[in-house]
Amino acid sequence: MMKNTKTNLAANTAKITGTFALACSLLFSACNKQPAADFSLDKSEYSAGDIVKCDNKSIDAKTYKWTFPDGQTSASQNVDYTLDANTSPGTYAIKLQAISKKGSKTSDATKLFTVKAATGQLTLWTTNSLVSQITVKVDNVTVGTITAYYASNPGCGASGCVTANLGIGTHTISATDGTYSWNGTITIVKDKCSTFQFQ
Question: Is pLDDT at 53 greater than 50 in this prediction?
């Protein structure tokens, strides 16, 4: 005896279509995950003119947008950002936006860092054995007294000389022992030691 079996084609079609749509949705979701922006800086404090190294640690991101304190932007994955030599001391921020593969999802991260004025060192010395003390001013501010003399340049930080840390750029020098006077200028370079001789 034969049985008639009816198949609900419409229901099966709907089931297949629904399964296919779910699979597509899951596939799309997997290809377009929510990114998580993250990065680190090599230091927390810099001097004006330094290089800030930014190490990208974001996950599930395809593209990136960095925004720096001076308004510059970059799309690189990792960035070395050079601070201007005239950057004012203070606290600054770098922002990273991580963007998903499809471009529809984003995540932001911000790091703060501080900047101090760029400086160099200056040592002032004398070859004049006829004076016992020379009072020295830089930019009309007293920075110390020379109490020893040397036949040749003693180098930075020598005993009996005057050594000062100064901002980069040109400074005026003046000195006196009460009888003689000296005047001049010197240009200070970042992280370098300069010497100034009074004869």
Answer: yes
Q: Is 74 exposed, middle or buried (0-12, 13-18, 19+ CB in 10 A)?
A: middle
**Selecting from 2.30.30.240, 2.40.110.10, 2.60.40.10, 2.60.120.260, what CATH number does the domain 39-116 have?**
2.60.40.10
Residue-level pLDDT at 106: 98
